[in-house]
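Hello forum,

I keep getting stuck at the same step: I have a sequence, I want structure tokens, and every attempt I make locally crashes halfway through. Rather than fight my setup again tonight, could one of you with a working pipeline run this one for me? It's a single chain of 143 residues.
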Amino acid sequence: MTNTPLTQSNRLQDRFGQRVAVRLAAGTIEIPYHVTERLRAARVQAMAKRKRAAKLHTASHVAASGGAATLTFGDERPSWWNRIGSALPLIALVAGLILIHTIQNDSRAIELAEVDAALLTDDLPPSAYADPGFIQFLKSGSE
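Reply #2:
Ran it on my machine without issues. Output:
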């Protein structure tokens, strides 16, 4: 196991907690029974809340299937906020694709309208553009 600053910090916190627990335990000899029972009940509640909070914030299982891995949160069903958070990227992707499609269709329609307007306002009839000889005329005229 590597000796990273995080593991050193955890060890120091554990040692400090153990020293505090020993001092507190030594001082409980003079405390009345009903007070120690209330403290014990409060300690049990605090530990239960701590365990519940730790369980909510860490993935408890990694499921591997073929070449993919998925982090799961145990047997609990995901909350509505998790489901909404999972669906938002998909919704943004679909909305982006629809927006791109709409913009491309509009720009294509504008380009076609410009070509049509140029053809209709030109001095040549539209049938001249379909004549193969006209294409040769344009090529020779540009040289």
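Residues 80-143 form one domain. If your local run keeps crashing, start a new thread with the error log.
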